[in-house]
Amino acid sequence: MASQLSLIVPFWNEEAAISHFVRSILPVLDGIADTDWEIVCVDDGSSDGTLRELIGFCETDRRFRVLELSRNFGKEAALTAGLDAATGDAVIIIDADLQDPPEIIPKMVQAWRDGAEVVLGKRIDRSSDSLLKRKTASWFYALHNRLAHIRIPGNVGDFRLMDRCVVEALKRLPERQRFMKGLFAWVGFRTVSIDYVRAPRAAGMTKFSGYSLWNFALEGFTSFSSAPIRLWTYLGTAGALLSMFYALFIVLRTIVWGNPVPGYTSLFVAIIFFSSVQIISIGMLGEYIGRIYMETKQRPIYVLRRTY
Ligand code: UDP
Ligand code: MG
C-alpha cells in the first residue's frame, strides 16, 4: 500500500513566493515512489492575495488543502493547525519561501522508511542569514540548553519530517503558548538529521523582526525552564549574606571608632541597587505569571474561518 505524505506549509503574506514554491515542490513530490501526498496550506491571516492564489491551486488539484485562519495567529499556531488537520502517515513541515530546499524531501522520506521517526533538516551553511541572526541564534541555543532539561539541537528549524506517532504525541501537548522547537524536542523519538544549505528567501521579506525574535527567545526560556525565576532565590541569598557581613563590619567600626555620620553614599547605593534588583525579579515573576494567566484561559490556539 502506498504511504501517505502530508506537507504542512504556513503562509503569511507570501503572494510573491507562492508560485515559485508550488512550481518547485510538485515535481519533487511526484518523483517519490509509492506515495500519495497532500499539501496542507495554512493561510495565517494574510492580507494580500495569498489566500486567493491558494484557493486557485485547491480548485485545480484536489491534493491541495487550505486552512484559512481567522486572523494572523503566528507561525507556531499555524503549524499547530496544520498538524491537527494533516492525515498522512508522515508529516513534513516546510516554509513557503523555499529557504528549506524541497530536494531534501525524498531523502527525508527515505530516512523515515529506513526507520527514523523524526528526520531533521540541519542547516550546515546559514550564510544567507545575517551574521547577527546567526550569532544570536547560537547564543540562544547554548543558553537554552544549559537552562532547560530538554536539548534543542542547534541549526535546526521547523523543517522536518515526523512520523504519525510523533504527530499524535505533539497533539497531546495542550499548552496554548506553543514554542514548537521546544515541543518537538520534548516529545523525543528516534531522530536522524540530514544536512542542507539554507537558501536565501525566494521572494518577499522575512516575517520575523529582531524584536519578535527576542520575544520568541523569551518564550522559549520560560516555556521549558524555571531557572530564570529560581535564579532570584540564589541572588537574594547571596545578597543577604553579603549585607550581613557588611552590617557586622559597620557595627564593629562604630563600636571601635564611634559614629562620624558619613555613610550617605553607601546607603544611597544600597537602596538603588537593591530596589532595582527587586524590580527585575518582580518582572521575571511577572513573565511566568503572565504565562500562567494565558494558559488558564484555555483559549483555542487558533480559529479557523474556513477550509477548502
Ligand atoms: N509565517 C506565518 N505566520 C507568521 C510568520 C511567518 O505563517 O506570523 C510563515 C511564513 O509565511 C513562512 C514561514 O512562516 O512560510 C517562515 O517565515 P520567514 O521566512 O519570514 O522566517 P525566517 O525564514 O526569516 O526565519
Ligand atoms: Mg524564511
UniProtKB/TrEMBL annotation:
Residues 6-168 form the Glycosyltransferase 2-like domain. Coiled coil: none annotated. The chain crosses the membrane at residues 231-252, 264-289. Keywords: Cell membrane, Glycosyltransferase, Membrane, Transferase, Transmembrane, Transmembrane helix. It comes from the Bacteria. It is found in: Cell membrane. This is Putative glycosyltransferase.
